[in-house]
Amino acid sequence: MNAGRSRNPRSRRSGVVAAVAGAVVLTTLTAPPAQAAPTGLVVSNVVVNNGKPIVVGTKEEKEPPVTFQVSLPPGLSTSKPFAYTAKPFLYRGANLPKIPDNDSLRMGMYTCYPVNDWNERCEGTLFIDPPYDLDSNGDATTWKVGLTLRLWKPDGRLKAEEYKKAPGSVQLKRWGKATVNASPEPVKKGKKLTVTGKLTRADWVKHTYSGVAGSAKLQFRKKGSSAYTTVKTVKSNSAGALKTTVTASVDGYWRWTHNGSSTTGPATSTADFVDVR
User: Fold this and answer.
1) By the 8 A CB rule, do 122 and 27 touch?
2) Cβ(71)–Cβ(45) below 8 Å
3) Structure pTM?
4) What does the DSSP assignment read for 163-210?
5) CB of 163 within 8 A of CB of 147?
6) Start-to-end CA span in the chain (Å)
7) pLDDT of 24 higher than 60
8) pLDDT per residue over 169-191, tens digit each?
9) Is the dihedral angle over the CA atoms 36, 41, 42, 48 positive or is it negative?
10) Residue 276 DSSP symbol
């Protein structure tokens, strides 16, 4: 390969290609499937969600970014954008799923930019629809990266396809929430102030938020200040309830913040202002 034959890095292959290629796949479903065979495509440097955990709620769709690079085999060039498709996906467990397109977290639209005649830099998003894609709280774990690679004949029929493992992984976490309430309001200076709250996280089975036991920091911001300080750390009960008492001294804002865990995303409540008189 002659790497000196560079292409204009601003030239691009439209993201519509992914949709068109998907349509081609559908047209081949009634034909005999192609034999699994090496495609010669090499996908590298797959980065999901900028290397950060993906935190998912109960209903809201998520589209975490994905970037990767594709190197083409001899006989293909970036000037023939419909000759191949290469898409990362996420899967659980030790083995690749038998039907990755249906049993994994899949790519949505993506766009590839030619680097030279044999290499492209691609970027796009995963598409996660919690009610459809996540049906177990055990899905809050480490997901591995797989690849769907396909070559196409000039007439649009499938020539070869393969499913491969790729280096890398990403942590999927359940969205966390926190609430706060400080009372009484107003309160006399020097008197006790009771601060309550609750920690909850997404339940992907019931598609609602349920209480979770964990530690939360009670933080205070003095009126007129922009910085919070941690007053104490409190453990919630099994239902997620938080409760503690403090001595009121000056006007300010109270909140709970939870750092999260290996399965739960971080959470910070809104602030509750207390007038101290």
Assistant:
1) no
2) no
3) 0.82
4) EEEEEEEEEEEE-EEEEEEEESSSB-TTSEEEEEEEEEEEETTTTEEE
5) yes
6) 77
7) no
8) 999 999 999 999 999 999 999 99
9) negative
10) B
